[in-house]
Write a structure and sequence with these properties.
The chain is an alpha+beta fold and about 600 residues long. The chain is built from 17 helices and 17 strands.
């Protein structure tokens, strides 16, 4: 039968050593008396009794002292060390000096101490790691109880909203007196699921912020939901960009339709009429739907059609005395002003047609109409080149909206990656604008010592994650001993960004058209014949031989309409040339393409 053992510290009873010694002495004493009674005479027995009594006292004392100093003291030391371990002191070593049961006990305690110390350190490291992640993640995090009171926040949240621990979440950063009508924190408390929404809040400086919010339950050891973690990603910049884009479009539409002259938007290559303002409809007699089924050449007299075709080759053009034909067959004369723009993902021309017929009929000298504001080289280039950053931002918003509509959880890493990519694309657009302005104006270029490898690595800080999402393997074979070249890091970085984007699109096109799973982008750097060489190779669709000679022409692209801008390679060519470099291309259709860039090594001053 197993008895219940009382829990608690092990204690040795006082006097144990004396009792054990006395017991052993009595045993010896009785043994001697028995022997004396059996074997000896009376006077001898008396002596034996005295001797036995003396032995009794000696043995009892010796045994008691042995137990006291060697056993009881060891047990007390082990008990003391056990209490220290329980209090978190793992540094003092437990040493077993004997091989008996006490020694084995000491050895077991020593092993237990080491194991507890190891587990405790591992636990502390884990706690520290989670604490670091909680505080360092680049989004707002709060932990809320069932009453929607804030229990904890990360540094990012405290920086922008202040110390609001203990306050209601809806009051702390949403400026409300009651909880939100469709509170996702409440939903998570009810069903234990992850929920996502988009909300508007107010920072401590009074500025309005837009958030993509996700919630996750926090459970105790009984699997009960005791709190909810709310994670918010600031998408204010994205919303501001959308508002600005909407305002810009409304402004354009207002100016477009209220201009006193007919205005046409035509496709840059086919010259198909894509749009026309109200004045053009009234002046030419066609309905808008009729115009959109025509090309611009259909309203131009045959004699002037060759001149109109030349518009697609010019960034900005003025053509005077162009003869047009109205729907009723009447001829009119117009002065045309055109500028390249992007319209609904099409490379287009915006054309203003000023009717000068009456002036010509009255044989008055041609007085050129007042010049109207047109889009310059910078704005036109930006309109084309910004297609890719805006596409990335649009893809990110579509991803968020799709997840929200489906009620699916957005993984924290994916959320962070997309937000960072959007932010990077905004920065990229800014760099593109500055670069296109410099490229278009042919401004002086400042040359400094640059490590080509750093430019390549910088490009991947913006696009590396994007390539991963497209399942493209990146192979970097960089010679770390390259000498410096004279260039500008930001502009060279743009070159490699263009190369990487083209490689990505080419690889996707090959997979789409020809199949296969080999999706590899390889960049190598080396030193050859006194030049620093960078090779960008892909396993993409390749470039057909009949267009290979045109790939560096502005606005020329082999990509589908709306996807390619036709500016990436021309800009890259101009940058490389500005730094005394060259670009060579080797390509085989269906196999891939290699761009080889060469730059002269920086020479030492004489």
């Amino acid at each position: 039968m197993v008895r219940n053992l009382k829990k608690g510290p092990i204690k040795l009873k006082k006097g144990l050593s004396f009792k054990l010694g006395l017991s052993l002495g009595l045993i010896v004493f009785v043994a001697i008396l028995g022997f004396a009674s059996y074997c000896m005479h009376a006077h001898e027995r008396q002596k034996m009794v005295i001797l036995a009594f003396i032995l009794l006292i000696f043995i009892s004392t010796a045994v008691g002292l042995y137990i006291l100093f060697f056993i009881n003291r060891s047990l007390k030391q082990l008990l003391s060390r056990t209490r220290q371990i329980a209090q978190g002191d793992y540094e003092q070593e437990i040493i077993a000096y004997t091989n008996d049961e006490i020694g084995q006990l000491a050895q077991s305690l020593s092993e237990m101490q080491k194991e507890i110390k190891t587990k405790t350190l591992q636990l502390q490291r884990t706690i520290n790691e989670f604490q670091t992640l909680f505080e360092s993640v680049p989004c707002y995090i709060t932990v809320q109880d069932k009453n929607f009171k804030i229990l904890r926040t990360n540094k990012e949240w405290a920086r922008d909203f202040g110390d609001r621990i203990g306050e209601y979440c809806y009051a702390a950063y949403k400026g409300r007196g009651t909880k939100c009508a469709d509170c996702i924190v409440e939903k998570t408390f009810k069903d234990g699921k992850i929920h996502t929404s988009e909300e508007i809040g107010k920072k401590k400086d009074g500025s309005i912020a837009h958030f993509i919010v996700s919630t996750a339950p926090i459970r105790n050891e009984k699997d009960e939901i005791v709190a909810v973690m709310e994670m918010s990603t600031d998408v204010t910049i994205l919303r501001l960009l959308e508002d600005e884009l909407k305002k810009s479009e409304e402004k354009y539409r207002h100016l477009f339709n209220n201009d006193p002259n007919p205005i046409f938007v035509i496709h840059q290559e086919s010259l198909q009429i894509l749009d026309a303002n109200q004045r053009a409809i009234e002046h030419y007699g066609y309905t808008k739907s009729e115009l959109q089924k025509m090309t611009f050449l259909d309203i131009v007299s045959p004699r002037d059609r060759i001149r109109i075709k030349s518009l697609s080759a010019n960034k900005s053009s003025i053509l005077d005395k162009i003869q047009h034909v109205k729907k009723d067959g009447n001829l009119i004369y117009v002065d045309i002003r055109s500028s390249p723009v992007e319209y609904l993902k099409h490379n287009a021309l915006i054309i203003t047609a000023s009717d000068i017929t009456e002036r010509l009929q009255t044989e008055q000298q041609l007085v050129q109409a007042g010049k109207m504001a047109t889009l310059g080289e910078m704005s036109a280039g930006v309109a084309h080149e910004l297609n890719q950053p805006l596409s990335v931002i649009k893809t990110g918003t579509n991803f968020f909206m799709d997840k929200i509509k489906k009620g699916e959880r957005i993984e924290e890493n994916a959320l962070k990656t997309i937000a960072q990519e959007m932010d990077a694309q905004v920065d990229r657009a800014t760099k593109i604008i500055n670069h296109l302005r410099e490229f278009g104006r042919k401004t002086d270029i400042t040359k400094v010592e640059v490590q080509l490898n750093e430019c390549i690595k910088g490009a991947f800080t913006m696009l590396g994650r994007q390539l991963e999402l497209h399942q493209i393997k990146v192979v970097l074979d960089l010679n770390e001993q390259l000498p410096p070249i004279m260039a500008d890091m930001n502009r060279l970085e743009q070159v490699f960004i263009n190369m990487i984007i083209n490689a990505r699109d080419a690889i996707e096109e090959r997979v789409k058209r020809l199949g296969g799973d080999e999706q590899i982008l390889t960049i190598r750097t080396s030193l050859k014949d006194g030049s620093v060489v960078a090779e960008v190779s892909d396993t993409g669709i390749g470039i057909p031989d009949d267009v290979k000679g045109r790939i560096f022409e502005p606005f020329f692209t082999t990509k589908e309409v709306g996807k390619g801008t036709g500016l990436g390679l021309p800009i890259s060519y101009g940058i490389v040339r500005d730094f005394d470099g060259t670009i060579e291309v080797e390509s085989k259709f269906g196999k891939g393409t290699t761009f080889r860039l060469r730059f002269p090594v920086k020479t030492s001053p004489q």
